[in-house]
Structure formats: C-alpha cells, structure tokens
Amino acid sequence: MQAIIAQNITKQYGDKKNTVQALKGVSFKVEKGELFGIIGPDGAGKTSLFRILTTLLLADGGTATVDGLDLVNGFKAIRHRVGYMPGRFSLYQDLTVEENLEFFATIFNTTVAENYELIKDI
User: Fold this and answer.
1) Strand 61-66 and strand 19-31: pairing?
2) Statement: the pTM of the whole predicted model exceeds 0.85
3) What does pLDDT average to over the chain?
C-alpha cells in the first residue's frame, strides 16, 4: 500500500501578470515504510509540496492521498496522522518547554494531555 500518491500536482503564486509556477505536474508514489526525500534548489517548490501534502496549502490542480486519505476530503484525519515542522520554526524563548507545548496544543485545538504519548520524551 502507498503512504503517499501525488498525481499531477500544480501550484502557482502571483497574479495574471506576475505568475510563478511553483509546482507543475508533480507525480510520485511512496510505499509505506519507504525512505523518500525531495531535494532541489531554493524556489523549486519543495516547501509548497510539503505544505500541500500536510493540508496546510491547497494545490491549484491535481490530486493526492496520504495514508489512503484524500487531501481535501480527509484533511482532518491527515492532520491527526502527519506532522510538519518548517525549517524556520522556533519556540518562544521566554516560555518553558511545557508552556510552549501548551501554547501550540491550543493553536491546534488539542491538549498536551491528549497527546502525552507523542511528547512524553521531549
């Protein structure tokens, strides 16, 4: 079974005069348990692709599934199964680790207690 199936994913930014094509017809499959990476220069669309696959950004075209769930119709279930931490993410320095966990849990409409098994080793 495939963990990820992406078919003809497209994403562009800008307006009619100044359009940047971030993703143009990206298609691939990742099997469960397979180690997979995406490499490319700055501006190649890697971050856009990951944001689409983690349901943080809508694609302009194409379809994709994550763990058998459609990105659009199954976005809530995908968000419970997949995490995404951008490269520029940072914790608030003036908060303790526990306070940071509580803060971000609140943003995602959950609690530290509900996710204790996931974060107990932090």
Assistant:
1) unpaired
2) no
3) 87
Q: Write a three-state SS string for 32-88.
A: CCCCCCCCCCCCCCHHHHHHHHCCCCCCCEEEEEECCEECCCCHHHHHHHCCCCCCC
The domain locations on the chain are 2-81, 90-122
- Which listed CATH number (3.40.50.720, 3.30.200.20, 3.40.50.300, 3.30.70.100) goes with 2-81? 3.40.50.300
How distant, in Å, are the alpha carbons of 8, 22, 95, 105, 121 from that of 59? 10, 10, 35, 26, 35
CA–CA separation, 70 and 101 (whole Å): 29
Task: Provide the 10 A C-beta neighbour count for residue 27.
Answer: 12
**Tokens 């974060």 belong to residue:** 119
In this structure, the strands spanning 2-14 and 19-31 are antiparallel
- pLDDT category at 122 given cuts 50, 70, 90 is low
